Amino acid sequence: MLPSFFIAHGSPLLAIENNEYTHFLNDLGRNLPRPKAIVIFSAHWESQVQQVSEVEQYSTIYDFGGFDPALYTIQYPAKGNHDVSKEIKDLLTANGIPFSIEKKRGLDHGSWVVLRLLYPNADIPVIAMSVNSNLTPQEQYKIGKSLSVLRAKDILIIASGGTSHNLMALNWADNGEITPWALEFEDWLAHHLHQWDLDSLFKYDSLAPNAQYAVPPHGKEHFIPLFYAMGAADDVQKAKLLHRSFRYGSLTHSVWQFG
């Protein structure tokens, strides 16, 4: 059975960089058993009702501005899979989760940057999923949990976001120093994830030190994919931190494996 993953997508520049984190993701893709399909929740696709993609072939969305022109030439032409989309629809229906079908939207950088580093050939079918920061963590977890049976069918579930993601607090000098409040927040998070302490994790905004900096109101959508990924491994409830590094002082590059 495949695990589920929370993977930080960091800056769009990861798509053209060679560093510790990009090398880790390259290796992760090579070492994982090849999945039949990939279900990916992206922080950059928000909706009030759960969206499930049903796309023949994805376009590539450049949902950012002011970066290296090379980024805007990258294509990730992954195909969809109608059978897997239907299975997702059936699972959401069985669990009483409202949803809508999206037939046109391409892959945003929260999806394609991560997928391209893992599987550069774009030869594995993808089903893109939205996130909703207005739901409670319990509701976000339930959506992931409803899809957990897919893992036994060699379908990889990924949630793409960032646990500490405050663009207003970044150190653009990027001198290698880790901002103390970000490290304290990430250490708290790691402790409670390893314990699968849902009671505390669901109240992260009031219990975690420096949560107001790591997950500001305008950055919640990057943190919440964590709950979708955890829910997808509710049957095992085991968390493992595979990688953690920092960029610009407080932007966390973390990869959590669940299950």
TrEMBL record:
<keyword id="KW-0223">Dioxygenase</keyword>
<dbReference type="InterPro" id="IPR014436">
    <property type="entry name" value="Extradiol_dOase_DODA"/>
</dbReference>
<keyword id="KW-0560">Oxidoreductase</keyword>
<keyword id="KW-0479">Metal-binding</keyword>
<protein>
    <submittedName>
        <fullName>Dioxygenase</fullName>
    </submittedName>
</protein>
<dbReference type="GO" id="GO:0051213">
    <property type="term" value="F:dioxygenase activity"/>
</dbReference>
<comment type="similarity">
    <text>Belongs to the DODA-type extradiol aromatic ring-opening dioxygenase family.</text>
</comment>
<keyword id="KW-0862">Zinc</keyword>
<dbReference type="Pfam" id="PF02900">
    <property type="entry name" value="LigB"/>
</dbReference>
<dbReference type="InterPro" id="IPR004183">
    <property type="entry name" value="Xdiol_dOase_suB"/>
</dbReference>
<feature type="domain" description="Extradiol ring-cleavage dioxygenase class III enzyme subunit B">
    <location>
        <begin position="6"/>
        <end position="255"/>
    </location>
</feature>
